[in-house]
């Protein structure tokens, strides 16, 4: 089974959704046959390429209610073992981070990509990591076991810029309008950071829906065949 997760490093619900999905996957008997790939999406593709304090950015968008929004997600995150320190969060354009995630997927595979995705979310929301800073991104990649030199060399260039933009546009054409969005086998989509029980149910249903029909000979035993 293939699961494509559209998300943005700048999205707190993507952090919660990743943790909850991983909890569901850990409880799913067929987890070893599930391939998880992270796809890019930008909540604000026009965000300036400069670090800005999160509180300032959110207040400009939502006014006084922004504090309550942060407090709500902080409580939800704590219940999942996640730290949200919005006083230290720095907002920046997320395109560079998405390019790095695509590079890691191509060069190291989906497991390495998932590790880096987790580290970026963890450090962005809990440690003040600037997702638009090349040094910060390189350090994050090294933390999850990747080689510094090839990562730094990639971030110094423009490789995969157009490819990632094409992926983001493709996501919108597929109907992805909010994140996180989980697409199972390219057919079934679940939006939002659902509870682990919901994700587990979806995994089970997709596994059943895509299970190959039993061969006639395999269904026969003791002189009888199942219909």
How does this model look, in words?
The chain has 227 residues and is α+β, with helices and mostly antiparallel strands. It is 52% helix and 12% strand. It is built from 9 helices and 8 strands.
First and last CA, distance: 26 Å
Helix content: 40-55%
Q: Looking at the structure, what is the overall shape?
A: globular
Lateral strand order in the biggest sheet: 2-1-5-6
Task: Report the uncertain regions.
Answer: 214-227
Summarize the helix and strand pattern as letters: EHEEHHEHHHHHEEHEE
Rg is: 20 Å
Determine the number of helices (DSSP H or I, runs of at least 4 residues).
9
Main sheet summary: 4 strands, mixed
Mean pLDDT: 93
Q: What assembly state would you assign to the polypeptide chains in this entry? A: single chain
Task: Output the structural class.
Answer: alpha+beta
- How many β-strands, per DSSP? 8
Percent of residues in beta strands: 5-15%
